[in-house]
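At this stage, I wrote out one protein, both as residues and as discrete backbone shape codes, and that material follows here.
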Amino acid sequence: MIKGFLGFLIGVFVTVLTLRFKELVNKEMFTIDNLKILLPLLLVVITGIIALYQMKSNIFVSYRIRWIENFKLNLSGYISETHLALFSLQIYSKDKENRKAYYDKYFEAINKSAMYRNRIFLDLDTKDDLQEKILLNIVDVNSLLDKFVNEDLSKDLELQISLKQTELEALILKLLNSEFVKNKNILHF
């Protein structure tokens, strides 16, 4: 689209020069009359290029904003589902009468968190250190939750999961802050 618009502007410029070619050949090239014609055309081309650059930046920023919003939704879903899974396991260990119901809640929360986790993995760029840390932190939370189910339901393991979740939330805030700064810098040229 940008190339098409730039081509259009150059086409208009060349057409005007072609239509005025006889006058330009018969006279000197840089007379005041010719500059009155060429200068506005040159300004139009420059303005068009700047507008195209700004439009490209706006499209890129809107894509990044949409990515951030989807990323935030997936992360909040993942965190809430892992909290629900942990809570269900805590109640499961204490409530002997309703164990099946709490295990079912745990299993449902783990399935939903896996869906959110996979969406997050697709959104992350492992070349970025901060995003790689988030990815590794999510893997750690999942392995600790699996350990929590398969082994004893100890307070130490529960604390480790909570700390990993808190660390994940801090990493997410850092990432979102850096993305906000990047978007802000893109709009200023």
About this structure: The chain is about 90% helix and 0% strand.
